[in-house]
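User: Good morning. I'm curious how guanosine-5'-diphosphate would be positioned relative to this chain. Could you predict the structure with it bound?
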Amino acid sequence: MSSLVVIGAQWGDEGKGKLVDYLTTNADVVVRFQGGNNAGHTLVVDGVTTKLHLVPSGILHEGTRCFIAAGVVLNPDVFAQELDGLEKAGINITPERIIIDRDTHLITPYHVALDEARERSRGADKIGTTGRGIGPAYEDRANRTGIRMAELLNMEELEQKILKNVEEKNRYLTGALGATEEVSADEVISFLKRAADRLIPHIGNVSLLIEQARKLEKRIIFEGAQGTLLDQMHGTLPYVTSSHTLSGAVFTGCGIGPRSLDSVLGVAKAYCTRVGEGPFPTELHDDTGEQLRTKGGEIGTTTGRPRRCGWFDAVAMKRAVRLNGFDSLAITKLDVLSGLEQIKVCINYRLDGSKVEDVPSLSSELAKVEPEYITFDGWEDDLTGIRKWHHLPAEARFYLATLAEIVACPISLVSVGPERSSTIFSSTASFVSNFMG
Ligand code: GDP
Ligand code: IMO
Ligand code: MG
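Assistant: Good morning! Here's the predicted structure, ligand included:
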């Protein structure tokens, strides 16, 4: 077992970062392949918290190389700040260790301005984006006006391109979107010069490096950001992000073939959360929802927004298993359910009285579905100190076994706390344990 992709199975924030950090104990390379600094990952090791947005979550393991592949959209200022923070914490951030693909697209100040102005102009119909310029940067990649890392190597040519881009963006910003302020081309150029000064040493060819690492039988983790239901094509449109968040995105995101992947791990909370707008069938608007939010510390790492909380949605999870081809699931935050008298899981949606086969395509329909639940007995025990599957309370083991059966996917790992060490292997599923050696 030499390569594993870790994918969010819900609406993001499932605890992917924690698990990637844990699994990196036994990995040589960790690769981010999509998204940008809309992502926020919290790692806790021996009581020390590290928050990451762009740097892969394997960074805390000395000797592991961290790659940003072409499918990412990278804000160079945010990346540089993150590197500074890591360096202050004594972490090696040399260009040998941290490599950004030459084809990775950059987020510039005009992408951020466009994201903000478009959200404002949408009013009540806003998506609730993170405001980090992610959508506009991916739009530019598709319309062929985007700026790639390699272009930093020729500032003269890049300056001409920026002048054209800024002129066009300003017309759109102040015209169609009603923004009151224009973006300054000079500011964008100095932003990119700063990026060139700092990041040119980190430019590399990640596709080639992954191929070389595979030939040397290195262990590689591909780290997904966001989650399945936020996929730009298969998620809950229009309330989604602007990249593909599914396992398939690894191949185009890195520039590697489908046989480069040995296993697909889905990460899901033992309940469900969502941040931003959009339908959420199992959302709880009562004290139980508040309890999950408080106990689970459900505040966004990137934007500080409170996360909406609800029950585990097995209808959506079956879809996630299919869209990603999960070999197994990691269930996180099981400890947060302790103390609830009853725990519910949605097993069917009804729309206008009839059972629906899959998550509806239209958000207006998803907003109307009535979830059907099964109810489990809860447990009182604090799970955070448990390290063995058979030490989990019988009710918790029954909950996990039933989830796995309903969604037809084995559970290979369970997380019972934010600490790296608060992680339990299942006694049955073995391929993730193989990866861990
Ligand atoms: P990511 O975006 O998928 O990496 O997830 P985030 O880091 O944004 O959000 C997950 C939050 O839950 C973080 O604050 C983690 O420290 C925390 N966390 C992860 N796993 C567990 C767990 O098993 N139990 C608890 N209580 N917290 C966890
Ligand atoms: P991680 O990697 C949770 C959500 C935003 C918004 C929608 C579109 O930490 O799991 P965008 O800025 O991407 O255009 O916003 O997607 N979103 C996330 N929600 N976790 C994330 O990342 C997210 N990244 C984007 O809240 O609803
Ligand atoms: Mg997050």
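Residues 12-13, 39-41, 301 surround magnesium ion (ligand 3) (CB under 6 Å). The chain has a mean pLDDT of 96.
Let me know if you'd like a different ligand tried.
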